[in-house]
Amino acid sequence: MKPLPTLRTFLQEEGVQGIFIKGDSSIRYFTGFTGGESLLYVDALRAVLITDSRYILQAQQQAPECEILEHQHGLFSVVDQVRPAWRLALDGDYFSYTEATALQKALPKASFKNVNLVFLRAVKSPEEQRKMFKAAAIADDAFHELIPHIKVGRRESELAAELEYNMRKRGAQKTSFDTIVASGVRSALPHGVASNKVIEEGDFVTFDFGCIYDGYCSDMTRTVVMGKAAPWQKEIYEIVLAANELGEEVLFPGKTGIEVDQAVRDFIASKGYGAYFGHGLGHGVGLDIHEKPNLNKGNPDPIPVGAIVTVEPGIYLPGKGGVRIEDTVIVTEWGCERLTLVEKELMEIL
């Protein structure tokens, strides 16, 4: 089913007559429009895209199913011209309090229901899957090219820049997020964005990175060690690797995010490191780097076939270092399939 008909069915199920949508990713998903600073109104019969003069021609080309309405004094200055219904919804994840208040002021007779549209984007179409497999392949190849250049004496920031360049020259639009390169004791920081720290012998080095291809994100983490791994490094690496593989083994459609997360969490705890794995096991990926569904304690919903999620357990030892291994996978009828194909065995960079 196409996105707009799916959205209209959703509105009927929610008992509302129309919806205002903000957020570049959601507007792109439902209309194909890739510009910014826009507002979308959809009801049973119409789709109206409100934007400014910078994007009018682009909107006409990319969103042929929409009426295009130009504003000159702010998105909410023309919403009454849309002639919307009065029992409405808005996607609260993308409206600030100030914006929601301005919308209500512009349409004083309307009532609004908060809804979450990210769930409609959870199941990826074949075309979305194709783009995400390509984004993952770009990141895979970029990392393989970087491996010979990971050396003692180089700075984290240098390696991050090379990795990003490797992705861009293969067709990436940009990175999915700020590239993480964290070495030594900094590898115990789950989100240790690349710094000017010099990489030293004996360091763990964690690389968490991804790129955007035709609007869709990839996401992967690999951890290497500089030189021969110490016994404690081998121990926690092998536990995280087994946890990653376990997460992918138990990820079947119908399993809830809580169940998959708990299976991995229990395994790490059984090895004595439960206190050092604090974050959720994974998250959805798509037009945004963090989408629904999540693999964590807060998601009691079944994971659907066609969802694309990460599986990223880690162990982080303050003052020593840490390991994370992350794959992006697609949930299939028989389990899950990896998009990220870089090898996961411990790399000792000699």
Please describe what this structure looks like.
- This protein has helices at residues 3-14, 24-31, 56-62, 97-106, 126-146, 156-168, 231-250, 257-270; strands at 18-21, 39-43, 47-51, 67-70, 87-91, 111-115, 174-175, 180-183, 204-209, 211-213, 216-217, 220-226, 282-284, 291-295, 308-311, 314-317, 321-324, 327-332, 335-338, 347-349.
- With 350 residues, the chain is α+β, with helices and mostly antiparallel strands.
- The chain folds into two domains: 1-119, Creatinase/prolidase N-terminal domain (Creatine Amidinohydrolase, Chain A, domain 1, 3-Layer(aba) Sandwich); 124-346, Creatinase/methionine aminopeptidase superfamily (Creatine Amidinohydrolase, Alpha-Beta Complex).
- The strands form six sheets. Strands 4-3-2-1-5-6 form a six-stranded mixed sheet, covered by helices on one side.
- It is elongated.
- Keywords: Hydrolase, Metal-binding.
Key words describing this protein structure:
24% strand, Creatine Amidinohydrolase, 6-stranded mixed sheet, alpha+beta, 350 residues, 2 domains, 20 strands, 8 helices, 4-stranded mixed sheet, elongated, 30% helix, Creatine Amidinohydrolase, Chain A, domain 1
Short structural summary:
The protein has about 350 residues and is α+β, with helices and mostly antiparallel strands.
